[in-house]
Amino acid sequence: MNNSSFEWAVIGAGPAGIAAIGKLIEKGVNAENITWIDPEFKVGDFGTRWQKVSSNTRVGLFLKFFEACEAFQYDPATSDFAIQQLAPEKTCLLDVAAEPLRWITENLKNKVHAIRGKAQQLKLSNRQWEILLANKTVYAKNVILATGAEPKSLLFPSVEEIHLATALDPDKLAASCSETDVIAVFGSSHSAMLILRTLLEKCQVKKVINFYLSPLRYAVYFDDWILFDDTGLKGMAADWARININGKLPTKLERIIAHEENIRLTLPLCDKAIYAVGFQKRLIPVEGMHSLEYNDRSGIIAPGLFGLGIAFPEAKIDRYGTLEYRVGLWKFMEYLNHVMPIWLKYGA
User: Fold this and answer.
1) In this structure, what DSSP letter does residue 246 have?
2) What are 160's strand-pairing partners?
3) Which of 104, 116, 159, 260 is a good FRET partner for 139, with 20 to 30 A between their CA atoms?
4) Whether 134 contacts 117, CB under 8 Å
5) How many helical (H) and strand (E) elements, i.e. helices and strands, does the chain have?
6) What structural domains and CATH numbers belong to the chain?
7) Which of 230, 235, 233 has its CA nearest to residue 59?
8) Which of 345, 344, 332, 343 is CA-nearest to residue 298?
9) 242-259, pLDDT tens digit by residue?
């Protein structure tokens, strides 16, 4: 097999891509027959955009992920990463969790054929996938897309929008606001609660208006499962929300139901806005496919083409009938455990 043709290609080097590489090797795929494509190999957005975000994942699950694949070569007995010193039931800043992932990435890069670049287009031809990069074409019989997702935007041109990545960095958010600003924050998610806290406690602003659609939802931990695991508030965000949203609203905070009429009347009174409502998948054009639709139980997009991670999350119904989309490092690993045997047999 030449250096541009492989059995497997993994596009994306965030946590989902890392998990995919580890599991492929664990399932017996020769590492030399795997190519890994990413522009930076810096743990994706997890390692470059969200470092100062307080996680909604407990430390114990991060550690479980690090130790899940022998190919990661992560040994807690000899590792001196800061996360090893934290209590397993606590949460942490994402940068603390990203540090071991950077180390694991370097280990995996030395095993597989790593290509620094951006995949621009895919095409199925002669039962293999052509992956077009800026300066070369790579071929693979099977491709895993772990390309991540971008925050959705408000698209309200008369109000200046603060990007979510800026809003989730306390120092950058403070630098983006002034004491005369009225700031709109859309959403009642984990991110929205962290942003509200920063605006009210660390930024000098005149007022904050939180547009929301539904009551807050909290994750509840039981012995063997978590109620509202993927939609409920956890950790620092949950603690703050119970006191300041479900308790007594801070003086500078107003909450408004995000109906069209309320938005039309109130949003123009705001100087800046932050949209903390959902993500949309990063798209790679695939010749012959109108859109990248996937089976949200198996991750299958097409023969030999599979989706993983925040752009292609697993759908799961909990024991009380709530449908949630599972996003998180350990959830990606669990998902791979039951879909990888299918992927290994569903080639073109």
Assistant:
1) T
2) 272
3) 104
4) yes
5) 10, 19
6) 5-150+279-343 (3.50.50.60), 153-275 (3.50.50)
7) 235
8) 343
9) 999 999 999 999 999 999
